[in-house]
Amino acid sequence: MTTAYYFISDLHIGGDEQLQDVEFEDELLGFLRELETSDEDAELIVNGDAFGLWEFTELDGMEKFDALLERYPELFEQLRATGERIPITFIPGNHDYELACYPEYVERLAEYNVGLEQNVAITRDVGDHVVWIEHGQQRDPNNRSPDFGNPYANPPGYFVNRHVTSKAGKLSGRGRFNWLKDIQSLTPMEEIPDWMVSKYFYREMSPFLRYAVLPFLLLFNLSLLYAALVFLDGAGLWSAPLDVVTTLLRQFGVVGELLDVVLVVNLVVIAILALVSVPLFFLVRDVRKTLDRFGLIRLDEPRTAGDSYMEDAREVFETHPEVAVFVYGHTHRASVTEVDDRAVVNTGTWLKRLHRQSVVLGVLPWVFYPSFRLNYVRISEEDGAVVVEYRVIEKEDPEDLTTLETLLTHDPRPDESIPERTVVDPT
Fold this sequence. Notes:
The chain has about 425 residues and is an alpha/beta fold. The protein has twelve helices and 14 strands. It has helices at about 25-35, 65-70, 75-85, 105-110, 155-170, 190-205, 205-220, 220-235, 240-250, 255-295, 305-320, 405-410; strands spanning about 5-10, 40-45, 90, 115, 120-125, 130-135, 325-330, 335-340, 340-345, 355, 365-370, 375-380, 385-395, 420-425. The strands form three sheets. It has a seven-stranded mixed β-sheet. Strand 8 (about 335-340) and strand 9 form a beta hairpin. Helix 8 (about 220-235) packs across helix 10 (about 255-295).
């Protein structure tokens, strides 16, 4: 009888050109070797998106699997070795949805001691309880296949990845820095425009142009205050504050004169923006209504992915009272949450993660801090209860930021405290 189950997901291995790079391959191989040398009776379950098959645009069918074998021979040999010691099970995600569509994948993966279950969800017994396991894409309208198992029943997310993510992998090497490929690490997708603007400004923009506009952008907030002082003085309401600022700038000589020029230029920009803001407001509002009518954006406040999956987990618990733990991935946001006397587990991702951070001064673009959180979840039985253990494999965060980005922001380090051990007993 299996005594422990190990879960990982969202590796996204493979893709066109720059997407071939697997930044965590050494850590993944080390994790598989640990399982190979372990003496416990365990099973490794990769609950979706082991591969990035959607991101192959120049190969079809089993040619994609042949490309994976060619590019990652050490990984597949390690899967074979680990699979000789413990069972390894894959289930399809959305990025490797083709695993659900072709029986050939079952046969080919079996050659490397990997069992493929072509189902939306599977279960495993842990003592007297059950663990419900899925990837989660079927609960996401943008990535839900309307006919699971049909290779032609692709959701909207398929076309986004085929035409955006894959194209980014092909073009990433042409930039000043190889950053465009990181689009696959960006969630939610609504942040893509901010991220593109950020990377253009801090990475691709001509350095001369960037540092020419930098003083104006840095002092834009201060210019708003300056504009208010000019208005008070011009209206004859209060002249003293503007006199103080003018006197202070004169004391700094040439530097003060330059600051005065920057403030005046920004003042003109603010005046122009004020003039066009009223008609622009009505135009933007009408465009947003039109996009909402076509279903391209939502004007109401959408539910967060976490809230949605919590509701789905409660439905599973209600209809299947024997289920003690609901395991899913897909959203790339690792978590372990107790729901009544049960647990909901998100297995996160091994991809680089990007955290949006605002600048401390001015109106400069957002900065996206990169980090890694390589994690796995171990679920076992103990004294009749189900024990969920969350573990992290240490990996240094990438040094992808420019000096300017680090100077203008502070490392966000979001609070993502996840309990290392959670015990649930629905009985």
